[in-house]
Amino acid sequence: MEYAQLSDTLSISRIVQGLWRVTDWNYSDMQLLKFVEEVLSLGIDSFDQADIYGNYESEKKFGEALKLKPSLREEIKIISKCGIKLLSDKFPERKAKHYDYSYEHIVKSAETSLKNMRTDRLDLLLLHRPSPFFNAEEVARAFEFLKKGGKVLHFGVSNFKPSQFEVLQSYLSDSLVTNQVEISPFCLEHFENGNIDFFQKHKIKPMAWSPLGGGNIFNTKDEGIISCLEVLNRIGEELNCSVDQVVYAWLVKHPVGICPVIGTGKIERVKSAAKSLEIDLNLEQWFQIYEAGLGEELP
Amino acid sequence: MEYAQLSDTLSISRIVQGLWRVTDWNYSDMQLLKFVEEVLSLGIDSFDQADIYGNYESEKKFGEALKLKPSLREEIKIISKCGIKLLSDKFPERKAKHYDYSYEHIVKSAETSLKNMRTDRLDLLLLHRPSPFFNAEEVARAFEFLKKGGKVLHFGVSNFKPSQFEVLQSYLSDSLVTNQVEISPFCLEHFENGNIDFFQKHKIKPMAWSPLGGGNIFNTKDEGIISCLEVLNRIGEELNCSVDQVVYAWLVKHPVGICPVIGTGKIERVKSAAKSLEIDLNLEQWFQIYEAGLGEELP
Amino acid sequence: MEYAQLSDTLSISRIVQGLWRVTDWNYSDMQLLKFVEEVLSLGIDSFDQADIYGNYESEKKFGEALKLKPSLREEIKIISKCGIKLLSDKFPERKAKHYDYSYEHIVKSAETSLKNMRTDRLDLLLLHRPSPFFNAEEVARAFEFLKKGGKVLHFGVSNFKPSQFEVLQSYLSDSLVTNQVEISPFCLEHFENGNIDFFQKHKIKPMAWSPLGGGNIFNTKDEGIISCLEVLNRIGEELNCSVDQVVYAWLVKHPVGICPVIGTGKIERVKSAAKSLEIDLNLEQWFQIYEAGLGEELP
């Protein structure tokens, strides 16, 4: 496994294990512990969560598994997110989904994540989405409180554009260490909106969510996706590997240092993802995939 | 009334009285003076003009009213704009509407504004619109001349995007103190184009023109506007206030410190606007309005 | 002829002679030499090439002409480009058009340009297009190698957006001296995407390719182009000059210092272009052309 140094004090595995759907996997706590240990044995030491995943249950599920072997905490990096307030039976008083980046909510959300996952610290806390109602000064105060208390070691964002990243960064003394955005051959928007340039300029290594396009690419009728899959298939044959692996290799090869977040709960597919780091895509193949995703020829 | 500190030496009232349509109000000079005094008694001390308003007549009309009580000048802030050259019977030699940010035009326009409004200074002069033909160095020279002569105390822009703001700022020693842009639930573009982020990063408080969407929102057939109005109506009922007041409260609540420019000449509606500052919209209501204006769900 | 100072050590003529289609002109080497000398006698001393022009043959053709009078090299500036890898019978091993900004390719491409054009140095080397797969650090190393060896004296880019320019610049010690982009009344995108602002802020003088909209504007059925041509024709009549000249004058009048790259191989048209610098378009005419190109009224 390769590792990405996000800051002087934080490295994560190039492949990150996502836990978005952990409550859908129907694992017992012991089965989940086993899965986590197997993932870790592949060198994948970084686990991605959010307060809201699984209708606010994913962190708890993960915490129950970790509780069975507390020493595991020292071997892994835990990433979580905050800021979205979902409509949920857990919060019957809510009237509308919204974002909340108040001091109170950020602190409370992070503290709940700690309690849920039975840990005293998050290695990385991300703001889940940019908000039209955002007070960077207030966010900075919340970050400072969480950092000073040792509750959160590093901070980042998710789905931010450069101008949104810059406003928050300008209020912080520490550097935001990453931006977790959707990147895949099926989602190239961050190549267009300046984010990839921004990452390279500021030496920020992004995490990529939905690296396989959300998983529903295989039963689509979208012609663009179908013809993109044809290219991925062909290149998979050239390289003697699966389409998943081609996509991971495509992401990992990019010079900015993309770290894909994989969503599977099947250990065989995790192993396959880990192996994709060894695949040597050439530059022409990289561009063939980019062009297939773009749906038009390069100028 | 609350006040917004735009710079160390300039504060304006959070609600700004626009004079765009002053010539349509059919006020005698004395009636207009009376209106201005009543507005001022509400704490609204800032008046927004432009050289071109009312086919170049609005500043003169305002000047005639001020002439009746010259001491009023010391109690108010006068904002005007320059840079657009309209086709007008006043300028029969013009062949096409265009923008002119030459040294000569900026200086002449500001000096004409002073003469029209019978004052020796503008508190704030804004460039009315960004121009594809823009020489920042020349604009900077005009600003310097006007500043040194005490004719204009502060400078800003209107309808500029971040890159346009930055180029001008880079040629100036003083900071541009505001950007007057269209913001309303019916016009969210500055949440999308990076301006709101830019304002927060640089601690620039924007002014908002057409805060009610231009006023013709009430007799529209546009479904997006109609369903947005439904949400505003419902929240108005929840808060026991008018739709106008909901919108002003929505603008004023935003952390960047938006100052709405109201266009009405009816003192009752001005009073209603002033009272909106006391309305305490909650975060969910703020987002419900944002989402209604957006016309789609938040991600 | 006017000259544009792109850096302390590089000036180019405001009109640049493009050699994109030199292999289509059916000139003998001696005829091409004659053409170059006539162009030079007009004060146009800058010649624009790219590795790929004419299916990799344009540089060679130009080199054959220069070979007939080696002393000419000291009187001209040679601009070339690299980074695109075309599908071509010259490179049968290629499977897909792509971009290559590896150290090896940049160095090899520049060295091939030198050999083709029988010179020991390029005055200016441009990266031909921004690439989604771009390693600025690697590009910087290639530039440093070429600069130290005296093989390339100055560097720039082509078709880059501000964020792309910034990432590369942040890895370089020397300033990029220009960005060659498409600008014409038929292509106003760089007025919209922040590039024109960026050029002015950083005092970068852009080169404009396809200043006449690619040359096929005269036999189009596109209504927007036709009505834009009507405006250009009318202004040409007002100024007693050709449409070409109106367009060149429109470009050259802009405050950022645009240098049009002309594509013609006919000396009469080159003379006509050179003369366009003397045409004094007024501001209303400039805006009439801009608005005609925009296809809608200014706000």
TrEMBL record, chains A, B, C:
Q: Which UniProt keywords apply?
A: Oxidoreductase
User: Entry's SUPFAM superfamilies?
Assistant: NAD(P)-linked oxidoreductase
Q: Which residues form the NADP-dependent oxidoreductase domain?
A: 14-291
Matching entries from Pfam families are given as: Aldo_ket_red (PF00248)
Q: Which InterPro entries match?
A: AKR_Detox_Biosynth, NAD(P)_OxRdtase_dom_sf, NADP_OxRdtase_dom
Q: What is its EC number?
A: 1.-.-.-
> For this protein, what is any one GO molecular function term?
oxidoreductase activity
Protein's name according to its UniProt entry: Aldo/keto reductase family oxidoreductase
Q: Which organism is it from?
A: Namhaeicola litoreus
